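S.,

Sequence below, as promised.
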Amino acid sequence: MGMKWPDPAPTEKELEMIEEVAILEMMPARYDEAYEQLDARRNILNRLFGYCVGGMSLWTRKRLVDTRKELGVLSIHVQRPKAERGVIIVPYRCRSISSSLMLEQEDAERKIRALIAEYGDSLKELLADK
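The prediction came back faster than expected:
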């Protein structure tokens, strides 16, 4: 009996991971925007908010690196997303096939807000433990 090769098409879980990479790739633009607004109005609360934004940036980068590594082990490589007419196109190569995942702009915004809320929850848990 020969070795069975995996199906070249991504599984549902792999597609979710590809989508997560695309969403995480889009988040730094949000940080840049937040930092610009903070620099315009300097006060102690803005400095505190700046630390939170910086922490979220680090959290996002770590999660992005971890997800990309996990996909790399599965021979899945995700390219940078591109926006065209309200649709985000995420090109990827999965084992032996190349394809693209399409995301609606509204869905991406909703998922970004959900990730920000997840980061906030992780901070609450961290602070509650201390």
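Helices lie at 12-40, 44-73, 105-129.

Coffee later?
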